[in-house]
Amino acid sequence: MISVYKAQSRYSTDHGWLKSSFSFSFAEYYDPANMGFGPLRVFNDDVVQPLTGFGPHPHREMEIVSIVLKGELEHKDSTGRQEVIRPGDVQRMSAGTGIIHSEMNPSASQEVNFLQLWFEPAEYGLAPSYEQTAYDPDQMVNRLLPVVSREGGEQIARIHQDLTLYLSRLEPGAALTFEQEAGRRIYLFVIEGDLAVNGETALAKRDAARITDTPKLSLTSPSGAFFMLIDLP
Predict the structure, then answer these.
(1) pLDDT of 167-194, one tens digit each?
(2) Are the C-beta atoms of residues 193 and 167 closer than 8 Å to each other?
(3) Contact 188, 176 (CB under 8 A)
(4) In 111-215, at which residue ranges do the beta strands (DSSP E only) sit?
(5) Is the pTM of this model over 0.70?
(6) Residue 114 exposure: Cα atoms within 13 Å on the Cβ side
(7) CA terminus-to-terminus distance, the chain
(8) What is the DSSP track for 84-126?
């Protein structure tokens, strides 16, 4: 089953310094029928204006992944880590038993656009931890490039959940096939461009698909696409 969620169906908010679109219930947006998809609990598409951001705030018992699409994002946390992530970087933070962090746009002139995803962990009571990795954008052309997984690896952030997050840039007319074990879920999100799923489901920029009982996908793009695929339990 492939359920499509159009970009305009997301809850959007504009605070001036921050524009956000929420794919699942978050902050002031609450829908008991839209609380997550498997362990994927939050998928926010944020644009933060220069020299502003999210001041210190706490988290616990959540795996948080941030992927910058444009600009820079400065991270600081109570473990003493201070990093800047840019396009091509992936940040994974395990809140565990509790962590305080901030996310700011350090640029005086350029906004930052980033995707922030929260996953429920496979186990609780973990020590807070932080990891930042970088991937080669050339390696995701016409293939699914894993950038986050339970096992981790070279240029792959390790997450405490049975999932793999892939990025791909599909050239016009190219095709990909993805297969997973029966009984698992797939979350698709089109960052740019357009994507056709199994020859019939069309996704445009910022559209998403929540997929169950469909362990094999054929992915094509008429004009090219930059997208994310998450293999979920």
Answers:
(1) 999 999 999 999 999 999 999 999 999 9
(2) no
(3) no
(4) 112-119, 129-134, 145-149, 157-158, 164-170, 175-179, 185-193, 195-197, 201-203, 208-212
(5) yes
(6) 31
(7) 15
(8) EE-TTEEEEEE-TT-EEEEEE---SS--EEEEEEEE--SSSSP
Report the residue count for the chain.
233
Q: Which helix (H) or strand (E) holds 77?
A: strand 73-77
- In tens, the pLDDT along 53-112 reads 999 999 999 999 999 999 999 999 998 999 999 999 999 999 999 999 999 999 999 999
Q: How far apart are CA 116 and CA 128, in angstroms?
A: 18
Contacts of 57 (CB under 8 A, 6+ apart): 100, 101, 102
Q: Closest Cα to residue 128, out of 80, 201, 79, 199?
A: 79
